[in-house]
Amino acid sequence: MSMKCGDSAFTGSYDVGSFPKSFGYGAEEGDMEENCAPPDKPRILLMGLRRSGKSSIQKVVFHKMSPNETLFLESTNKIYKDDISSSSFVNFQIWDFPGQVDFFDPTFDSEMIFKGTGALIFVIDAQDDYVEALGRLHLTVSRAYKVNPDINFEVFIHKVDGLSDDHKIETQRDIHQRANDDLADANLEKVHLSFYLTSIYDHSIFEAFSKVVQKLIPQLPTLENLLNIFISHSGIEKAFLFDVVSKIYIATDSSPVDMQSYEICCDMIDVVIDVSCIYGLVEDGSGCAYDKESLAIIKLNNTTVLYLKEVTKFLALVCILREESFERKGLIEYNFHCFRKAIHEVFEVGNSVHSAHWRSADSPSGSLSGLNYASLNGNNI
Ligand SMILES: Nc1nc2c(ncn2[C@@H]2O[C@H](COP(=O)(O)OP(=O)(O)OP(=O)(O)O)[C@@H](O)[C@H]2O)c(=O)[nH]1
């Protein structure tokens, strides 16, 4: 494995204003109540009954808490607003609600809470009787939809680590059916709920969060398009664009995602950051565990190669490829250079336009200036 870690801060050509200013691996907790998002910064709400696992999800995904430590988390008794944008590409606020939130309390300002919300994650404890949770889900969704019909409603059927495979499927089917029946009875058929089976004890919670976040990234079609072009011209089998600090993948190419590939790429990020923290920082502990020189290549014993490289201050590309394809390392590096440049352009334009619509999201072969991939047969496209 080769790995580099310099201590210089990233100074790419993009407008750093779009990205938080400093990267601190293992971010500190955000401030609580006072930490308000600017009006245009979307938020993700975590709601659900008491002890359903909301705080654990937030701590495990965004604060590197180990799942076992969540056993000692105290009950949340006021809204916890966590701004993770100083360490992550995910430029949102996560609001963790107490389980006993009362929508009929006059101090509960649903207009303010739901107006700027991008996604509402409702967590249901699958190891518990979920009848009460379904009632709560219905109340929450109908309230939120009335204020803001553009919210994405995401239901995490959580703690499924305690369930057998058959039981998981059956629970998901039953919750899906009942939740949609309740909506239909209230003439709310047009509300769409997405369901995920999750647990903090495996990668399912990261995968589910990845999908929730991807829906909120306006540049997603462009990112997927760029990844498709990159892998097809470089002989790569699968590529993920990762938010390093949370291990959420913000985009991947259009081939199906299998859980094992995602897991091994997550593990690679952990290895790189851990080794870099131990051996990459300067003596006094200053510097960054992840910076523009971060690069790692791991050859597995099954002729597979894992390749990780820095894309931006917060994003890393992690690829899976065959050993034979890695013989053309120069080509991969050249194409990576084009890919990286294009990604920077995507976010530069995204910032200056400040709009949800990326001008070349439909461009089939990446018409961004300077994007000139070398292909496997030696031709440029
Ligand atoms: N088995 C299992 N337990 C989990 C999982 N996620 C959370 N838990 C446990 O569930 C318990 C409650 O978790 P919390 O995160 O405090 O729940 P909460 O929804 O924030 O609770 P309130 O703050 O009271 O609303 C803790 O003991 C966690 O360890 C999971 O995926 N699997």
Automatic annotation (TrEMBL):
GO MF annotations, alphabetized: GDP binding; GTP binding; GTPase activity; GTPase binding; molecular adaptor activity; protein heterodimerization activity
Compartments, record wording: Cytoplasm; Lysosome; Lysosome membrane; Nucleus
Gene Ontology CC entries for this record: cytosol; Gtr1-Gtr2 GTPase complex; lysosomal membrane; nucleoplasm
Keywords tagged on the record: Cytoplasm, GTP-binding, Hydrolase, Lysosome, Membrane, Nucleotide-binding, Nucleus
Pfam short name (any one): Gtr1_RagA
Major place of residence: cytoplasm
InterPro entries: Gtr1_RagA, P-loop_NTPase, RagC/D
Gene Ontology biological process terms from the UniProt entry: cellular response to amino acid starvation; cellular response to amino acid stimulus; negative regulation of autophagy; positive regulation of TORC1 signaling
Top-rank lineage group of the source organism: Eukaryota
Gene3D superfamilies reported in the protein's UniProt record: 3.30.450.190, P-loop containing nucleotide triphosphate hydrolases
Catalytic reactions of this protein: GTP + H2O = GDP + phosphate + H(+)
SUPFAM superfamilies reported for this sequence: P-loop containing nucleoside triphosphate hydrolases
Coiled coil regions, renumbered to chain: none
CDD domains recorded: RagC_like
Signal peptide, first to last residue: none
Recorded family membership: Belongs to the GTR/RAG GTP-binding protein family.
Cited function: Guanine nucleotide-binding protein that plays a crucial role in the cellular response to amino acid availability through regulation of the mTORC1 signaling cascade.
Protein name: Ras-related GTP-binding protein
